[in-house]
Amino acid sequence: MDKSMQKYLDKAEVLIEALPYIQRFNRKVIVVKYGGSAMVDEVLKEQVIQDVTLLKLVGFKPIIVHGGGKEISRWVGKVGMEPSFVNGLRVTDEATMELAEMVLGKVNKELVQLVQGLGVRAIGISGKDGGLLKVRKKYADGEDIGFVGDVKEVNAEILYDLLEKDFLPIVCPVGLDDKFYTYNINADDAACAIARAMHAEKLAFLTDIEGVYKDPKDPETLISELRVSEAHKLMEEGYIGGGMLPKLNNCIEAIENGVSRVHILDGRIPHCLLLEIFTNQGIGTAILDDGGEMYSGK
Ligand SMILES: Nc1ncnc2c1ncn2[C@@H]1O[C@H](COP(=O)(O)OP(=O)(O)O)[C@@H](O)[C@H]1O
Ligand SMILES: CC(=O)N[C@@H](CCC(=O)OP(=O)(O)O)C(=O)O
């Protein structure tokens, strides 16, 4: 067989490899938490949006929940304030809340614009709209960190309606409490709450690291499949720190509340979402129920 024919066959094989995954996720809800470097780098940003748009066009029901922590910190610095975090959560006073909402709103509409540009109808929606995300004040180990909210209720009906009308919802992690005050929500928390409420088939967290490491300083210790009980053990033994702590807790919560597949993916890898979903390889760290099957080869 000549070389050019082989090239075509290789391409066809990639498409055939995707077939069982296209069947499995057809009409299923997939929540993508989009944050980290993949939001700052323009090329990566475009690739993530292409991936999610492709998921939509092949018949899945993706929902994007975006962050923007790096951009918020940049603006907080610009106005002469110092960004501050406790356990991966931003300490949010009134001025920080105002900035955070401005920045997240801008990020939200930029993402809508990119998706629209690829021919898919997107709706950007904040957790405030239609009571999508109702929150209560959240504390960090008992410490008051200001206007930071814990999602206590998701109005899933809005998202079902948007999906039904074939829109791609893009959610901004800001919500209201019972007294209608504005709260900043960690985007991982928002994505987990939405995945639970929507009984998502998959929840994928795009982040800035390959996945969960036993020792973050040793790349050899990347864990490709992590059971819930092992994850608890790693946290108790102090192997998990910083922003990975709320992320892993959210993964566990999602798995324990019926989300079938939860993944932490390296958003720095071009098209990481497509590679994870459509190939036999599987990348990053998959979090698994204690009784669940290992993916082994995915
Ligand atoms: N055991 C671990 N494995 C992987 N990452 C870890 C671990 N412990 C701490 N981390 C840190 O957690 C970070 C991921 O959290 P974060 O930066 O908040 O992500 P994002 O901004 O995408 O939500 C990693 O970049 C890493 O520095
Ligand atoms: C309470 C809290 O920490 N809110 C986050 C919301 C944005 C976010 O989570 O962005 P990433 O996912 O990109 O980090 C913040 O203010 O940074």
UniProtKB/TrEMBL annotation:
<keyword id="KW-0808">Transferase</keyword>
<keyword id="KW-0028">Amino-acid biosynthesis</keyword>
<dbReference type="InterPro" id="IPR004662">
    <property type="entry name" value="AcgluKinase_fam"/>
</dbReference>
<keyword id="KW-0067">ATP-binding</keyword>
<dbReference type="GO" id="GO:0003991">
    <property type="term" value="F:acetylglutamate kinase activity"/>
</dbReference>
<dbReference type="InterPro" id="IPR001048">
    <property type="entry name" value="Asp/Glu/Uridylate_kinase"/>
</dbReference>
<comment type="pathway">
    <text>Amino-acid biosynthesis; L-arginine biosynthesis; N(2)-acetyl-L-ornithine from L-glutamate: step 2/4.</text>
</comment>
<dbReference type="InterPro" id="IPR036393">
    <property type="entry name" value="AceGlu_kinase-like_sf"/>
</dbReference>
<dbReference type="InterPro" id="IPR001057">
    <property type="entry name" value="Glu/AcGlu_kinase"/>
</dbReference>
<dbReference type="Pfam" id="PF00696">
    <property type="entry name" value="AA_kinase"/>
</dbReference>
<feature type="binding site">
    <location>
        <position position="184"/>
    </location>
    <ligand>
        <name>substrate</name>
    </ligand>
</feature>
<comment type="function">
    <text>Catalyzes the ATP-dependent phosphorylation of N-acetyl-L-glutamate.</text>
</comment>
<comment type="similarity">
    <text>Belongs to the acetylglutamate kinase family. ArgB subfamily.</text>
</comment>
<dbReference type="InterPro" id="IPR041727">
    <property type="entry name" value="NAGK-C"/>
</dbReference>
<keyword id="KW-0055">Arginine biosynthesis</keyword>
<feature type="binding site">
    <location>
        <begin position="68"/>
        <end position="69"/>
    </location>
    <ligand>
        <name>substrate</name>
    </ligand>
</feature>
<feature type="site" description="Transition state stabilizer">
    <location>
        <position position="33"/>
    </location>
</feature>
<keyword id="KW-0418">Kinase</keyword>
<keyword id="KW-0547">Nucleotide-binding</keyword>
<feature type="domain" description="Aspartate/glutamate/uridylate kinase">
    <location>
        <begin position="28"/>
        <end position="266"/>
    </location>
</feature>
<dbReference type="InterPro" id="IPR037528">
    <property type="entry name" value="ArgB"/>
</dbReference>
<feature type="binding site">
    <location>
        <position position="90"/>
    </location>
    <ligand>
        <name>substrate</name>
    </ligand>
</feature>
<feature type="site" description="Transition state stabilizer">
    <location>
        <position position="247"/>
    </location>
</feature>
<protein>
    <recommendedName>
        <fullName>Acetylglutamate kinase</fullName>
        <ecNumber>2.7.2.8</ecNumber>
    </recommendedName>
</protein>
<keyword id="KW-0963">Cytoplasm</keyword>
